[in-house]
Design goal:
single chain; 91 residues; alpha+beta; 3-stranded antiparallel sheet; 3 strands; 25% strand
Length: 91
């Protein structure tokens, strides 16, 4: 294996929340991940997208990559008042 492939890999992940006009009150998160050494970038909408981007770099280090099913599921922000009430009680 090439010694350069054994060096630590760095990534920058930036995420933000978007509210869609068509679905007032509905939010989705978006983001992008950048591989620092190569400046390669991919836009992401889920945890699975992040794992798919990082996987080839890990495989070059000899890591066998398997993705849990939950990484392919969308994430949602809890906005119901019951959740907010429970959170307020915990503080």
């Amino acid at each position: 294996m090439d010694p350069a492939d054994q060096e630590p890999q760095s990534f920058v992940l930036k995420v933000w929340v978007e509210e869609t006009a068509e679905e007032a009150g509905q939010v989705k998160w978006r983001g992008h991940i950048t591989h620092v050494p190569s400046h390669s970038r991919r836009y992401v909408q889920g945890l699975g997208d992040i794992a798919l981007f990082v996987a080839p770099y890990l495989e070059r280090l000899g890591v066998r990559v398997t993705m849990p099913r939950y990484l392919c599921l969308p994430l949602h922000r809890h906005t119901d008042s019951a959740s907010e009430d429970r959170m307020g009680q915990q503080e």
